[in-house]
Structures are given as C-alpha cells and as structure tokens.
Amino acid sequence: MSGFPRIVGSRCLHTRRENLPASVRGELRGEEVNIVVMQNVTPVAMAALGLELVPAVVFGLAAERVARSVQRWPVPVRVGLPALFVFPYVLVACAQGIFLWKWFALYAGLPVVVAWLLDRAAAADPEQRGNWRDGMILLTLGLAVDLRWFESAWPAGLRALNELLLVDVGLYGFLAIRRLSGTGFDFCPHWGRKASSGKTSDSSATDTSGPEGLRAAPSEHRYGTAEGRALPEPTNLPQSTKAAAFSDWKIGLRELLFLTPPVLILGLALGFIHPHRSLLAGNLAGVGWAALRWVGIFFFTAVPEELFFRAWVQNLLERRVGRRAALGIASVVFGLSHFNKRSAHFNWRYVLLATIAGIFYGRAWREQRRVPASAITHTCVDWIWSMWF
User: Fold this and answer.
1) From residue 60, how far is each of 238, 329, 375 by CA, in Å?
2) How many Å separate Cα 126 from the centre of its chain?
3) Is 16 exposed, middle or buried (0-12, 13-18, 19+ CB in 10 A)?
4) Which one of 87, 179, 203, 313 is least enclosed by Cβ atoms within 10 Å?
5) Are 162 and 49 in contact (CB under 8 A)?
6) Model-level pTM?
7) Is-contact 2 9, C-beta < 8 A?
8) What is the pLDDT of residues 224-282, one digit of tens each?
9) How many CA atoms lie within 13 A of 284 on its CB side?
C-alpha cells in the first residue's frame, strides 16, 4: 500500500521507458513504468536525505542508550534540541531559492512543541497507558502526511523529505522523550546473546524499543486491556542476531501467506488490481531493479508506516482497549489513511483492502512486538502489487 514517507511505492517517479537499461526496456510494455527513485537528486538533496536518515538509524540501533543520555540532559536542552531538525529544510530550500521564514519557524518549532508535549505526557502518565497529548501528536503527524499540509515547502520531487523529517520528530519524541515501551523499533545486532526462553523476572517485565529495553515506570497495571486483565507488560526479549532475523522473516512471511488469498480475490473482484507483466522479465537487469525496489519499499515505506500505525497507534491503543480492539481500530485507521490515494474521490476499495492488510500487519507486529516483522509483510505486499498488479 502507500508509503508514509513516500520516496518509493505509490509515489514512485514515473520514468519513461527509454530512460531504463536496454535489457529492461525491451521487456516492458507501455510508455511508462514505476521505479524506485527520487526526483531532483542533487548533492544538496542527498546531504539532506543523509541528515534525515541519521536519527532513524541511531534509534534503530541504539534507542535505549540514546534515551538514557537524553534523560540526563536539562529539560530545556532535551526539549529544545529537536529544533535542529530544521537543517535539512534550510539546506534544500536555500539551494533551490525557495526559503521562507514561515516554513523555517514550522520545522524549528514543531519538533520542540512535540518534545515538550511528550515530556509533559511522560510526567503525567508514567504508566504509559496513553495520554491526550499522545493522541494529539499522532493525529497532527498523521494528518500532516496524509493531507500533505507541508509539502509546498519543498521543491517537486523532494517532498518525501518532509515526511521523513516528521518521522524523525516522532522518533525523538516518543522514544527519547516519552520513552514509549513496546514499540519494537529495534534493528540492533545482539552479538553473542542467547535466545531467551521467554521468561522474564518482574523487574524486567517492561518492554523495549531498543536492544536492552526502554523501561517505563513500574506499575501494577497489567498491560493489554483497559482493566489490566489479560497480558503481562510486553517485552522485546534479547535474541541473537540470527534468531531475531529468522523470527522476523518467519512471522512476516507467515502473515503474508495468510493475507494474500483474501486480498488477491477481493482485489480482483473489485477491479482494484490488474495483473501485468513483471519488471523481472527473466533478465538480470530486471532482477536488480526488483531487488532495489524491495529494499527501497522496506526502508522508506514499510518501516515508517509500521512505526506509526503499529508501534505508536496500535501500541498505545492496546493499553486502553485491549489487543483485539486495538488491532481492529489501528487497521481501520490505516485503511482510512488511503482514502485519497490513486483517486480524486474517496477511494473505498483502497480503504477496504488496506484495512484488511492492516489486520495482518498488526498481527505480525504484535506477536513479538517488532517493527521488522510487520515491515516484512508490508514490504512484500507492496512489492508484489507493484511488480505484478
């Protein structure tokens, strides 16, 4: 389905056939084909992209250590630091001659407001059952992306940088300031650790967004339902690198297997998907493009969307309404976020299919509370759709 920071996926640049390698061009029909690429790629644009990728990489590999360090800083420093997220905008806007102070104020001020609100939420809700500030921030970030509020600040072809910047704002706020547990935004190699048997002591029962665990304040609340009936507080148990990666792939591909028949049948019945010849086309160049597309969708579409809808939205909902209701609500919200995709009107077919897909993405995430697992399912769906439908 569509991407959160849509550098790839449904917002791929439409590139003319003659711009592709001859070995791929000869196997393609039609005048245009979607490929994973970003327009207006200049050294300045690549520098801005690199700056925006740094927070995601840091939090994906060392979220706990970053959060511990941030918590030791004075409040004005940790709340004011994310104003630095404005620099990618400054770089691109100045290079393109479109710099405006109103956008500078937005990109410098919004991250500070988010950090301040989540700092207040952490103080008001140490049990992390969800606070009105969490909801307000998620609603703002979600609508800003879905309705493209800020895209006019960026030159055509680089507007995905806006969305990636908003992902950084959320990562810093929810992982470093709020220290939200149970997100599963963990891509860190756990070298030399043995897979856990699944048992944890009471003192370590709080969960993690990083390799060691971002620990919420201890409480008597039993995580998972509004009344605290069903589940222990979640944990991302330490695993070896191979065990974690194998588990993510096993869960992700299993949910893909469950998801494919109903979505395929319904999509064909509704006339939403249409089979076509793949880029693979039996040649090495096609295989290379396909592999590049899969990697691009994973990092720039699936991971950010799963971070938002599963690690933040579904995660927080579980603490209020329970696992099943949270899965359903998050899936519906995910589906509704596609209402304006590939259509000038309310695209109910896309909403319906995305809602169904969201259920299986949510199942993949919640099994071990890991973003990589649901991102694998999500990536495979988008990849198969883009390659054959």
Assistant:
1) 15, 26, 13
2) 25
3) exposed
4) 203
5) no
6) 0.79
7) yes
8) 433 333 444 444 444 555 566 678 999 999 999 999 999 999 999 998 888 876 655 55
9) 0
